[in-house]
Amino acid sequence: MFDFLFNISQLTDFMGTGFRLSIPIAFAALGGVLSERAGVYNIGLEGCVLSGAFGGAVGAVITGTPWGGVVFALLFAGMAGVVLATLSVLMRVNQIVAGIAINILMLGFTSYFARVFFPDGTASQNISGFKTFEIPLLSKIPILGQPLFNQDILFYSIYLLVPMAWWVMYRTPWGLQIRAIGEYPRAADTAGISVLKTRFVVVVISCALAGLGGAYIVLSQVFVFTENMSAGKGFVALAALILGRWNPIGALMAAVFFGFADALQLRMQFSSPDVPYQFFAMLPYVASILALIVFAGKVKPPAALGLDFIRSGK
Amino acid sequence: MKHQFFKGLRIAAGMAALAVPQIAIAQDDVKFAIVMPGVITDNSFNQAGYEGALAASEALGLEMAYSEKVAQPDQPEALADYARRGYNVVIGHGSEFSDSVQRVAKRNPDTSFLIVNGSEATGNISTVGYNYRHLAYGLGLIAGEMSKTGTGGFVGAQQIPFSTNLLEGYTAGFLAANPDGKVLSAWTSDWDDVAKGKEATLNLISQGADMIFPTMDNATIGSLQAMQEQGVQGFGIYYDAIEDWPDTILQSAIFDLSGAMTAVLSNIEDGKLPSKAYEFGFETPEAARFGTFHGDVSADVQDAVNAAIAGMVAGEINP
Amino acid sequence: MIKVIEFAFRLRTIWAVFLALFVGGIMIAAAGHNPFTAYGALFHGAFIDYYGLGATLVKMSPILLAGLAVIIPLRAGLFNIGGEGQIYMGALCSTGVALYVTGLPDLAHFALVIVAGCIGGGLWALIPAILKAYRGINEVIVTILMNYVAINLVSYFVSGPMMQEGAPYPYSPEIDDHLFLSWIMPGTDVHTGIIMGLLLSFTFWFILKYSSVGIGWSTVGHNPVAAKYAGINVKRQILISMFVGGAVAGLAGTIEVIGLKYRLFHLFSPGYGYDGIVVAFLAGLNPIFLPFATLFLSGLKAGANVMQRAIGLESTIIEAIQGLVIIFTAASLALKFNKPFWERFLNRKEAPSTVKGDSKNV
């Protein structure tokens, strides 16, 4: 059943699959960590991944370079973020309802405009994606070298973004503000931090990051945009960030776990074709529920998560 | 299954066959509608259905309407609504419509229903399907002959009869050409997730498969990309995919719904479609055929495949 | 004057819908269709046309129950995003009993099928409730994850052990016809499930508002610490409210099987559980308003399908419009009437000496 683990080339292939499947989840989970740390549920991650994917496709086609795709992905997902932040932060619409609304809206918008931009469906999309390149020396590391260091620039950007997010969160005044707002907004407010403004900015950044996950799917993985191609990755990211204990590094590790579970699911279908595929398909979800149970008690969500902030009367 | 209709078509080959129905449709105001589960831009099953319906409406001068992305619970309502609006023939595009059509057909006895890939033609219900085994057998033969590793690969979404027939045909063809070989299969459980299609195919390739036959909808693109990146070859489905993938596609199983739907709908009489299980295969090339061979497929292999096709048409080979 | 504005403000949800439809109308016009024809088809198809109204009510039945499945646990402070999974598990259990339990009198069998559906959904909801009550694990995430598990479980059963032999698509055999819910609008598929939904909405409105159980849940939801001091067993209340919510969702799945499909299908629910969250909030989390919110959303969905069929509008526009409507109505509901602001605004208008630009800056 697990023979492939003992075959070097198959093992590296398997790990490559696992890491590639983790990256969109990792981007979205990173975005989710930021937003939830500031006390805002971002159920709209799914819609943001989708709008990022669409932006990636449109930008790459218009500008002819994948970098244009990245810019458009950030822009489109960021705009989704502005809508979400306006609703859930400024107008105090229930955060989960606002997120669901964003998901529905983005599904409709991207599909509608995809038909405007790509009238012939996938056939007419000529998307120039990122190319993989080896990082010297590191790519020669046995087994791990190829899966981790023979990838493309968006993949590598995770190596920078995750530590950066951690550093911002735990080592800068702004990160302290975010965490304070998520734990005890009233105190933060008293200390002179603008709760609403900070939450607004954080939600927009959170969505833009999730958009990069969508851009990765289009610009690095499949080079086409198809309707509803996010296929639930934003929801999985929500699980990943909780599994990762609302910590950027933890979220990345959880995303990798999900990616590997999915890869294992695809892989085990060959070695045990008699076991119904549905059991493999539920594996990542069951695994994360179990992981939540195992880590229970040690995981504490931000205290003010999901709560509106209303400045008390002056 | 052989019908007089097909015999007639075979005799009056090619364009002549399509000309016959146009005379038959003298009555005007005949309308038909097609209800599809997915989007009409998927380069695959749904797009084939949409384009097929469009072609049939043009060829036969029928008015046509369509609904796409109709979810499971909305099926009966969509079908019944068309029936109430006076559409003569309502098509459920895909076997998942079987049960809904049966229920709606009972309540709308004056409307004819047609199920694509359906299994039961009774009352006012007809089915149209393909001999998936035969076409897949042909592809399997090519794969078996051309495979260097002796391992073929099949990627499907769900184990429904459409997919399992393709897999069984493909495997039978592969083993006929290479008795010591094997065919690996992967199920993505999703017709449209491109990334999953791609990863499933990469996995098959890393297991040694070098002849891949992907059979999903949108997700097929992912498979083809994986094949192109890894430099392995394989097969297309629904249309002559070599146009879009000149290096990768060795041959395609063309399920030409334009030909099939035109042929089926040309049987409309007095606004009704006589109930029948319409089936198409190699014997009806206007609806089901192979496309262009890739230059890598040697003349010997091509001859062997053509001989096998002739054998299947004649009923001598029954995969 | 202030009264007029206040009245207009009370109707804000209606303005929001119009605003959303206006934005959607621009998209429809951009796609080359006449928005008025399109919306005419939608409204007529959803509420006026006999069969169209039928389609609306058919959709309304499960969404109404799914909405209750959100409202009930939320009273005790639990956000149940798992309606979708509970619908699937309810349908799985009730279909199992419908197909494999034999030899019972018809009525007893029917009752057992309903109970099985409720227990299936209820137990599925109990898992996140237990994890929440005893291990403090966030129920939002567990319920989302369990949706995927449930959908795959149903998929496994209907394409494996429960699959009808020779079926062209994964579904179970047909259940016996003594279990069918009766039709209430001849010629349409509207079944008595809608009546169950309406009765339950009313019942739960009463229970939540007047019964000690409902008041206990509210206390737990508002302030679990205070509830504890008041002698309420917080954990038990969490479990019960979630079980009841899940049971109602399970009933939604059951009526889809015994009222509409008569079989268990792979992927039979297109997200009714998530629709339930939307209608619950549109109804302001009050069961008595829930039927209206649900009628509105189901009408929008059913009417949108008619719009697609009647004038050939692409389904993608319709999804975008649904999203717009949800966003605008949700936003409008969150607005609070700011009486002092409007009073100041009116006073300024009456005093012509104030520059126009000033009032904008307020």
From TrEMBL, chain A:
Membrane topology listed for this record: Multi-pass membrane protein
Places the protein is found: Cell membrane
Annotated keywords: Cell membrane, Membrane, Transmembrane, Transmembrane helix
Keyword Electron transport: no
GO MF annotations in UniProt: transmembrane transporter activity
Pfam families for the chain: BPD_transp_2
Listed InterPro entries: ABC_transp_permease
Transmembrane portions of the chain: 14-34, 41-62, 68-90, 97-118, 153-170, 200-223, 235-258, 279-297
GO CC annotations, alphabetized: plasma membrane
Main localization category: membrane
Name of the featured protein: ABC transporter permease
Organism: marine sediment metagenome
Taxonomic placement: unclassified sequences, metagenomes, ecological metagenomes
TrEMBL record, chain B:
Residue stretches making up the ABC transporter substrate-binding protein PnrA-like domain: 31-272
Keywords, sorted A to Z: Cell membrane, Lipoprotein, Membrane, Signal
Compartment(s) where it occurs, according to its Swiss-Prot or TrEMBL record: Cell membrane
Listed CDD domains: PBP1_BmpA_Med_PnrA-like
Main location: membrane
Topology in membrane: Lipid-anchor
Gene3D superfamilies: 3.40.50.2300
InterPro entries xref list: BMP_lipoprotein, Peripla_BP_I, PnrA-like
One Pfam family this sequence matches: Bmp
Record protein name field: ABC transporter substrate-binding protein PnrA-like domain-containing protein
Annotated source species: marine sediment metagenome
Source organism phylogeny: unclassified sequences, metagenomes, ecological metagenomes
UniProtKB/TrEMBL annotation, chain C:
InterPro entries in alphabetical order: ABC_transp_permease
Record membrane topology: Multi-pass membrane protein
Any matching Pfam family: BPD_transp_2
Annotated Gene Ontology cellular component terms: plasma membrane
Places the protein is found: Cell membrane
Entry keywords, A to Z: Cell membrane, Membrane, Transmembrane, Transmembrane helix
GO terms for MF: transmembrane transporter activity
Transmembrane segments: 12-31, 51-74, 86-104, 110-131, 140-158, 190-208, 238-260, 272-297, 317-335
Keyword presence, RNA-binding: no
PANTHER family per the UniProt record, alphabetical: ABC TRANSPORTER, PERMEASE PROTEIN, GUANOSINE ABC TRANSPORTER PERMEASE PROTEIN NUPP
Protein name as annotated: ABC transporter permease
Source organism (scientific name): marine sediment metagenome
